[in-house]
Amino acid sequence: MAFLSDTLARVKPSPTIAVSNLAAELKAAGHDVIGLGAGEPDFDTPDHIKAAAKAAIDAGRTKYTAVDGIPELKQAICAKFKRDNGLEYEPAQVSVGTGGKQILYNALMATLNPGDEVIIPAPYWVSYPDMVLLAGGTPVPVEATLENAFKLSPEQLEAAITPKTKWLIFNSPSNPTGAGYTREELKGLTDVLMRHPHVWVMTDDMYEHLAYDEFTFCTPAEVEPGLYDRTLTCNGVSKAYAMTGWRIGYAAGPKELIAAMRKIQSQSTSNPCSVSQWAAVEALNGTQAFLQQWAKVFQGRRDLVVRMLSEIDGVTCPVPEGAFYVYPSIAGLIGKATPKGTVIDSDEAFAKALLEEAGVAVVFGAAFGLSPNFRVSYATSEAALEEACRRIQSFCAGLS
């Protein structure tokens, strides 16, 4: 009898975490490596948020809390949804977890049965399919190609829905592409969903506040109120507020679903860190002025990376509407070889050779379900990005 669970054999470790860990190990060993793998803002958590955490510690707010969030944080989340998205929720409709990933996982664990299908537009965040598999469901990737600006069309969604479909996982702006759906594009998808009342929507809005140029963020239940009762609107404080290590994610949806998610969490992690919850209260209730300032910085970095990567023969780099990623195609480089003789026969081979021969760590596209591409995170300094892009240019120029 095997010791490890059969379920574990269905999933793989996170490739993005693996790349970040490898880059850190190489740096620690003395190698000159620029890591562009981590989806983590390089800004520090704002001082007023850190002060709220310190005040919580000083006030002795270091005990167990309610399983899925303190009342003050749930109220702040309700206020955020009303302020930013025009969505009315009450605290009983809100769940707070240890990061956005736990919120998504709890919902899938609480709802999926063997045979249930989950539609996932590809490219996708690497964890979506594996979380579906862990929960016993069947991921159904649907490719949104470069030609379609990495966006799922209504026709593709309609064709993917079957009687077994339980969820659509929707992410805009997207990790890994940065693609953002306009209100009109999203309305096309919600119109399809309105024709299929058995399909629920799990919307990952983690990059809501990272939107550039003329793009305006919107979320499914906001665009189509008829979906309100079968939408789980998910978000968190990690990306917008530079609070990745604080581990606070949240969601709002129907009470029955939230209660089921609470039951899962009560027998797994129980409550999120008490101090982090109080910091999140301040993040959501306090000043939001810096969000626009940070977005301007990210937009400048985006423009730098897109410009430099677009100068490379064989690379196509579309301009993303949001988040802090670009997802260039290397279709024009496949089949070429490095001066050391490494053949670029896949995006994984490209990423490996780029790290070994140029000292730049990126994540290969196959990890996100669409090849041949690679993901660059520009959530780092402009100087590091410029040097990294120079190295990528030089590396690609040396292929033959």
UniProtKB/TrEMBL annotation:
It holds the Pfam family Aminotran_1_2. Its cofactor is pyridoxal 5'-phosphate. Residues 32-392 form the Aminotransferase class I/classII large domain. Its EC number is 2.6.1.-. SUPFAM superfamilies: PLP-dependent transferases. PANTHER family: ASPARTATE AMINOTRANSFERASE (PTHR46383:SF1). This is Aminotransferase.
